[in-house]
């Protein structure tokens, strides 16, 4: 899910009726998860690279809120399964990759040649570093350790990138987005270190007991 705890109350009120309707139509929450991923990824890849930054951010934002529908459906059905959580997390990685790839392609198409390669490289670094952050948490949980710590949760990363993208769309220099991507790469790496330290401390305590 893209949204944090504060956003979920809002989405429950707005998209609750839609979730209820889909449940009555016997649509699977997993199908909704996949459709949401495809829609969000397509919107990012179609709107951001050509420079439709404001529209792209707004459409992705709306779809991000709608992304909560599958969770609302699962709770109404009482079927919050392990596979549903796995699928949701996996689809989130696809969405993230699409969004940051789209931003990299936008920067690659700019007239300022000095930002083209650097911007694309930083965007791809955000993709890989973001996946590393998620892997660090998943691997820790596989060891029975909770490692949610870190300065760059998924919601934080997407909101920060969205604000920078919106600023450029409203007239700021593309360098704003380049700097934002660089900061996100750094924040991702710091988060991996933070989670690694959490796992190290927890595993050390387990070995002592």
General description of the model:
This protein has helices at residues 5-24, 29-47, 53-66, 69-77, 82-108, 113-142, 154-169, 175-208. The relative contact order is 0.12. The chain has a single domain, classed as Up-down Bundle (Four Helix Bundle (Hemerythrin (Met), subunit A)), CATH 1.20.120. With 209 residues, the chain is mostly helical. Helix content is 81%, strand content 0%. The chain is built from 8 helices and no strands. It is flat.
Outline the fold blueprint:
Elements: H1 5-24, H2 29-47, H3 53-66, H4 69-77, H5 82-108, H6 113-142, H7 154-169, H8 175-208
Amino- and carboxy-terminal Cα gap: 36 Å
Strand count: 0
CATH superfamily: CDP-alcohol phosphotransferase transmembrane (TM) domain
For the CA atoms, what is the radius of gyration?
18 Å
At CATH level 2, the architecture is Up-down Bundle
Q: Tell me roughly what share of residues is in helical segments.
A: over 70%
What's the number of structural domains? Answer: 1
Percentage of β-strand residues: under 5%
């Amino acid at each position: 899910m893209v949204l944090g705890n504060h956003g979920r109350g809002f989405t429950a009120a707005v998209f609750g009726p839609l979730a209820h309707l889909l449940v009555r139509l016997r649509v699977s929450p997993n199908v909704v998860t996949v459709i949401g991923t495809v829609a969000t990824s397509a919107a990012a890849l179609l709107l951001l690279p050509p420079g439709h930054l404001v529209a792209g951010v707004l459409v992705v934002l709306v779809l991000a809120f709608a992304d909560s529908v599958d969770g609302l459906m699962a709770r109404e059905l009482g079927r919050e399964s392990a596979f549903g959580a796995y699928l949701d997390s996996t689809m989130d990685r696809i969405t993230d990759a699409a969004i940051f790839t789209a931003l990299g392609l936008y920067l690659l198409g700019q007239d300022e040649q000095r930002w083209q390669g650097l911007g694309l490289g930083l965007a791809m670094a955000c993709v890989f570093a973001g996946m590393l952050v998620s892997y660090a948490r998943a691997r820790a949980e596989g060891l029975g350790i909770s490692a949610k710590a870190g300065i760059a949760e998924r919601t934080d990363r997407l909101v920060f990138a969205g604000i920078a993208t919106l600023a450029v769309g409203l007239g700021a220099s593309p360098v704003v987005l380049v700097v934002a991507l660089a900061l996100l790469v750094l924040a991702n790496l710091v988060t991996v270190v933070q989670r690694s330290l959490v796992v190290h401390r927890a595993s050390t305590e387990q070995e002592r007991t």
